[in-house]
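debug: dumping io for the single-chain case to check the tokenizer round-trip. Nothing else runs in this session.
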Amino acid sequence: MTTSGDVGTEFAPEVADDPELAARIDDLLHRACSLARALTGAEQAALSVDLDGDGRATRKFFNLSQAYARWRDFRVDPRGLGLHGMRLEPGEVVRLTQEEVEAHPAYGGFGDVAADHPPLRGWLATNVCGEDGRSYGLLQLSDKAGGADFTADDEDRVRELAAFAGATLDALRAARPDAG
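debug: decoded output
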């Protein structure tokens, strides 16, 4: 059983004016989180995208396994905190074991909310980019089922999924009536 929740601010102004486009983007992001978990066996997936490029209109989606259900309502904006603040190049994937997560200098960056934050038992993340290299945001997974570490195959799957999501976001933005 999967629980998922949407946390985030409003869409970018050009998307907010088009409810159909906003709904299509929401659907894409929900599905990307679910698929990322299914492809890798992760207990949690988080996807944060910034549609306008300035951080004012960020959408965040989480997909949590039943093991993570107690954090379903966790609503702290992770932007810039801990590992969530990492900047990745287009196509770059970062894969960390639990030991590497705990040793990472950014691991303790959650400040006052560290005790309430869902656990990060291993971490896999990649940038969601458009075909022109435009960065939309970060797809992150943690806590692979059974205590296993993420693999090179997981990296490949997440990289491909993020590229597909980025290309789809490009297409949805280009389909706006005022695009062009």
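debug: round-trip ok. The longest strand covers residues 135-144.
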